[in-house]
Write a structure and sequence with these properties.
It is a single chain. This protein is mainly beta. It has 2 domains: about 240 residues, Thrombin, subunit H, CATH 2.40.10; about 210 residues, Beta Barrel (Thrombin, subunit H), CATH 2.40.10. Helices cover about 10% and strands about 35% of the residues. The strands form 6 sheets. It has a 6-stranded antiparallel beta barrel with strand order 11-12-13-16-15-14. The chain is elongated. The N and C termini lie far apart (about 70 Å). InterPro entries: Peptidase_S1_PA (IPR009003), Peptidase_S1_PA_chymotrypsin (IPR043504), Peptidase_S1A (IPR001314), Ser/Thr_Proteases_Immune/Dev (IPR051487), Trypsin_dom (IPR001254), TRYPSIN_HIS (IPR018114), TRYPSIN_SER (IPR033116). GO terms for molecular function: serine-type endopeptidase activity. It is found in: Secreted. One of its GO terms (biological process) is proteolysis.
């Protein structure tokens, strides 16, 4: 066949970026050039996520590496008979494979990983291939390298409508070619999405919402042996074009060359995410260096709207500002309403409804360059006594003040989040707010928003106070928490109200020596 240009898709809703992939650093092609029917040889090192699923005696299916412990494939690949009443055992996932006839491809040797456990979708039906998805948990941890990388797996259901607009995709596999035999060299073919009603005439049976139909009408197709392999497209995510898996090759008519059916990952992402996160959390979770490791909630801790890190700063009986507990001795807040030489106290646990503790303030550190609301509206409060943590009082998650790599990761994820949560009071205790364009923010007032400030749309049904925390929700295994992004500095009401927050992560160099004192 003649080569077809790769389909590249850019969604408007990805322009600001957001963390919605299973693996952050996924889908990157780091190589160099050196069941597919009428396809062409895939370029070497251009599909480092491809996995070959086999038993000791036979090649079964394709698959994709999606994390350091999991390969994604089709559920029917485990079946050893037509009814799927019997299953294959002693499965192996082979990574870094390209030419099956060679032990070494261009200096790279494949790596075999025995399969520890198969997680097939409970709703899989062999007769019609509904929910044809399975995860293979590998024995051992995969080391990412040039020839072994994970493909991107989209997770957020709110992206479903955008992903559904992809009308062209790439299929990869070692399946039967036009010669009627399985290919030794990895093959690739570009396919078009086919409307379900047209596909049903070709396939001979009806399809459900969780299935995609694809083909070309020119005898280019996936075929026997390509099952379990990916269909994918390039998606712009975290500043790069990344290969993102759209579906899994599932089934087609006995005579290849017309069309085939693929399991739609956007309908199966909940199963994938839950299986990966719950299967072996202690092994697959990366180590994160926090300022205070006590910020992570235990599985039994209260979470959600409890905000155990929220602080209220009082002068006598008057609340003057909000703050955020970042360690057992320090609270971050804004500088504007804090008097220099007045007795202050911090109250924690106020949102618990019944449990509240008060700590006297030892030292108030306002940023030395704070003059007005324009810049550097931040202050660090040092408490007289250490805070005792419990389910109702706990610091927010901040990066280690000595780990530059961790700080950069926190900042990158904060910058890429187009939607953040802010805490205040009113009808709701908190709400989600959308990031606004800083270059346009307060432009009509001839006020420039600096790089150490964040502009967001003002929330409705929520009142904000100085120092109201702007936070990013995140998951770490079975624990859910928040990381601190900003502190409310100033805002206004109007036709399109917007609020400006101090970008907390921009002041870590200033915070570091004060916390170490």
């Amino acid at each position: 066949m003649t080569a077809v240009a790769v389909c590249i898709v850019l969604f408007g809703f990805l322009s600001h970026g957001s963390s919605w992939m299973l693996e952050e650093d996924c889908g990157e092609i780091r190589g160099v050039e050196e069941r597919i029917l009428n396809g062409v040889n895939a370029k070497f090192l251009h599909n480092p996520w491809m996995a070959l699923i086999k038993t000791p005696t036979e090649f079964l299916c394709g698959g994709t590496l999606i994390t350091r412990r999991f390969v994604l494939t089709a559920a029917h690949c485990e079946c050893s008979n037509v009814e799927c009443t019997e299953k294959h055992t002693d499965l192996t996932a082979r990574l870094a494979e390209y030419d099956r006839s060679k032990l070494i491809d261009f200096g790279f040797t494949y790596e075999d990983f025995p399969v520890e456990k198969v997680y097939a979708h409970k709703g899989f039906v062999m007769m019609n291939h509904h929910n044809d998805v399975a995860l293979l948990k590998l024995k051992g941890i995969v080391e990412y390298k040039r020839q072994i990388q994970p493909i991107c797996i989209p997770l957020e259901s709110r992206k479903k409508s955008g992903m559904a607009k992809i009308m062209k995709f790439t299929a990869i596999g070692w399946g039967k070619t036009q010669n009627g035999t399985n290919s030794d060299v990895l093959q690739t073919v570009e396919l078009n999405k086919i409307p379900k009603e047209d596909c049903e005439d070709i396939i001979g049976e009806g399809l459900v919402d969780s299935q995609i139909c694809g083909g070309t009408g020119t005898k280019k197709d996936t075929c026997t042996g390509d099952s379990g392999g990916p269909i994918s497209s390039s998606v712009y995510y975290m500043g790069k074009w990344r290969e993102t898996q759209i579906g899994i090759t599932s089934f087609g008519p006995k005579k290849c060359g017309g069309a085939a059916v693929y399991a739609d990952l956007m309908y199966l992402s909940d199963f994938i995410e839950q299986t990966v996160m719950e299967s072996d959390i202690t092994v697959i979770l990366p180590k994160i260096q926090f300022l205070d490791a006590g910020c992570l909630a235990t599985e039994t801790s209260s979470g959600g709207e409890s905000f155990p890190w929220l602080a209220h700063v009082y002068m006598d009986a008057f609340l003057i500002t909000y703050g955020t507990l970042i360690s057992d001795r320090f609270v971050l807040t804004t500088a504007q309403f804090l008097p220099e030489n007045a007795p202050l106290e911090v109250r924690l646990g106020k949102f618990s409804g019944s449990y509240e503790v008060t700590h006297k303030v030892k030292t108030l550190h306002k940023h030395p360059d704070f003059v007005s609301l324009a810049q550097n509206d931040i202050a660090l409060i040092e408490l007289e006594s250490a805070v005792k943590y419990n389910d109702l009082i706990r610091p927010i998650c901040m990066p280690s003040l000595t780990d530059n790599k961790e700080q950069q990761m926190f900042q990158k994820k904060a910058d890429q989040a187009d939607k953040l949560r802010v805490v205040g009071w009113g009808r709701w205790a908190s709400t989600m707010v959308y990031r606004a364009n800083s270059s346009e923010c307060y432009k009509e007032d001839h006020q420039e928003i600096g790089v150490k400030q964040i502009c967001v749309d003002h929330p409705y049904d929520l009142n904000l106070g100085s120092g109201s925390p702007l936070v990013r929700p995140f998951k770490h295994g079975r624990s859910e928490g928040f990381t601190l992004v900003g502190l409310a500095s100033f805002g206004r009401h109007g036709r399109r109200p917007q609020d400006v927050y101090t970008n907390v992560l921009s002041y870590l160099d200033w915070i570091r020596p004060l916390v170490k004192q």
